[in-house]
UniProtKB/TrEMBL annotation:
Membrane-spanning intervals of the chain: 100-120, 155-173, 180-200, 212-234, 255-278, 284-304
Region forming the signal peptide: none
InterPro entries: SpoIIM-like
Pfam families attached to this UniProt entry: SpoIIM
PANTHER family per the UniProt record, alphabetical: SLR1478 PROTEIN (PTHR35337)
Top-level lineage group: Bacteria
Protein name, per record: Stage II sporulation protein M
Amino acid sequence: MDPILLAALNSPDWKELQRLSKKSRLSGPEVAEFNRLYRRANKDLSHLQTVAPESDAAVYLSRVVLQARVHFGSVPGSAKSTATRFFGQSLPAALYSLRWYFVGVFVLFTGVAVGTHIWAATTPGLLDYMLPPEAQREIAERGFVAYYRENPSSVFALGVWVNNAWIAVQWVVLGITGIYVINGIIMNAANTGIMAAVMYEAGYAEDFWKFILPHGVPEITCILIAAAAGLKIFTSWIIPRNMTRRQAVAKEGRSLITVAMGLVIFLFLSGLIEGFITPSYMPFGIKMIFGAALTIGIVAYTIALGRPAYLAGLDGDLDEERAGYRTVTVQ
């Protein structure tokens, strides 16, 4: 439809929406009318931005919709409903959307860690080149275990949580660079492989697994989820599909910051395991129950709640009314 004709037909509705947006209180019928007009104005604006983005009608309607959106967003929902939506729909849907990215980064991390371990363990003199023999003995005989036990559990757990949460948020936010996340995966995996080789070479393989597995399984799971989120933002920039690059990155960024917020919570639980369970003297099997339970819980939560929400069209992004319109592009 011609933008001039669209403005002539719908400008009364736009003006009424503008009038309602200026009112501090709305009655029941006015709320219903506001909602109807707002949705219609959004559709009109999307059309105008596609066919005539620089027209006077598009500029005017942009101001009207922005004013209405501010008014719409100034009425907060209850804390309970917000939390229910976040944990029951947004977070699990966003996590589920990362499933194939997670598989990819898991394969990369595991491959590099195992490959580095085999390379370091089977190449004569390589470990001594990387670390002096005295440093290797110190790590194997005292340093590796002491790392978990030399500080009070509460202090250690807090430090681990802050560090891991910071890494996770960085990997999500800086994921658009692509190389930052891939480099982080490779470096962390290589360090894990080298540490395993040091412990195996000195005859302390049992200590390595006893002190890394209970918290390491859920912790690495969370860090790899962050890596998957970052790489999804990167691929949305490279392949924006039916949106502009800016809109594609904004959409994935909003969705995956939701993941970062969720990972802060998951990593807090992992930090409690690392601070209080890993260094304890309880049997290894009991320790593993805690780590396995958290990991299985994250996976079950993602599948049980995330799959239905994802199939229903949710992905962790804001509602269309809050996120704003998008411009459709032709591939």
